Structure formats: C-alpha cells, structure tokens
Amino acid sequence: MKKYLAEMVGTMVLVLMGCGSAVFAGSAAGAVSTGVGMLGVALAFGLAVVAMAYTIGGISGCHINPAITLGVLLSGRMSGKEA
C-alpha cells in the first residue's frame, strides 16, 4: 500500500508542477502579461522528477509515469503484482 500511495503522490506532483507551469506559459500568460516560457516549463518538469526521485525513489522506485511502469513490466524487470 505504501508503494501505491508514493506513486500517487509522485504522479500528482509531476502533473501539478509540470502541467501547471504549462498553463502559466500558455493562455494565462497573456492575461497576466508574464509567463514562465518554454524553459520554465522544462525546468518545472525536470525539477518535479528529480524531487520525486529523491523523495519516493527508495519507497517505490519512482515510476511516476505509467508508461515507465508498463515498459519495465514488459521488459521483465518487474512482476505483474508489483506493477
């Protein structure tokens, strides 16, 4: 259960930080007349992944993207029960 909660929190942080910064780089930037730009979005995604790797990496392996979990499962490095 601890792994599932760690992955849920990790995915939530990635989506909120990454996609949230993309919103500020997009249409919301025109309303406020400032934005983070493409570099800010890239940094937000990268820093979210690094922060979650340090935070939940020891608990669950930090597969915060379901596509990574699927790839590891298909390569045989993880059992179906773990995935």
| Overall pLDDT | 84
Q: Give the H and E element order.
A: HHHH
- Helix run count: 4
Strand content: under 5%
Low-confidence parts = none
Give the helix level as a range of percent.
over 70%
Total strands: the figure is 0
Radius of gyration from CA coordinates: 15 Å
- What's the assembly state of these chains? single chain
Q: Let me know the largest β-sheet.
A: none
Distance between the termini: 12 Å
Approximate shape = elongated
**From the helix content, strand content and strand pairing, which structural class follows?**
mainly alpha
Report a brief summary of the structure.
Helix content is 77%, strand content 0%. It is mostly helical and 83 residues long.
What does this structure look like?
With 83 residues, this protein is mainly α. It is 77% helix and 0% strand. It has four helices and no strands. It has helices at residues 2-25, 27-32, 37-60, 66-75. The two termini are 12 Å apart. The mean pLDDT is 84.
Throw out a few tags for this protein:
83 residues, mainly alpha, 4 helices
Secondary-structure map with pairings?
Blueprint: H1 2-25, H2 27-32, H3 37-60, H4 66-75
